[in-house]
Sequence to fold (258 residues):
Amino acid sequence: MASEAHGGGGATGYIVHHLTPLSAGEGFWTFHLDTLFFSVVLGILFLALFRKAAEKATADVPGPLQNFAEMLVEFVDSQVKDAFHGKSVLIAPLSLTIFVWIWLMNFMDLIPVDLLPLIGSVVGLEYLRVVPSTDLNATFGMSISVFFLILFYSIKVKGGIGFAKEMLLSPFGKWMIPFNLLLKLVEEIARPVSLALRLFGNMYAGELIFILIALLPWFIQPLLSFPWAVFHILIITLQAFIFMVLTIVYLSLAHEDH
Fold:
């Protein structure tokens, strides 16, 4: 039934349809509207839930939402204390935001693949991708933001001269400045690239497997979709955790003044 949807394009057409974003613009200035929409909505959801938990926080018997929020805060705070060796009031809130926001984005992969696109088609949307972290633009946007923070704190903590010395003189001294600079540029650029591609690759593969399961006969789908969904919960949590921890580690290195 799934393979007959969306214009009868068969299995290939079904897969391509689900992997095509709702976009506007051309070339470099193409905006993936579905990625932007779901990212913003999930960000607002995160802020609203934690704001509500903070407003209703009590020293008496806490409610489920307060317990959940406190558990996440303590979990992230312990990771920051273990991996971050500098002093900054930004790192813990940033890490909490990264973990929860990416987890919510990844969680969208557990929604049945045809549900939201079908609703979108009712209101006239031809394409709709509902998992922002399967969009390379979204993962690179987050990783590049982290990269700018790394550069900012590297220059702030070490100073302009200290940062320049680290880039030019490490690890082989002043006689190997061009080679040192090349190595440091590769090292710095590899950080946001690896952050973005790791998250994108794992989530894209997970989404593709759900789409392939949806192409199977209806009586086989439950036998595969439920076990994969349970396993995928671990994947989406692990990917959010890895992105958060690597961000903490990279920012910790940026705060080290040698």
Summary: Residues 20-254 form one domain. Residues 177-214 form the longest helix (38 residues). The beta strands are 23-24, 31-32.
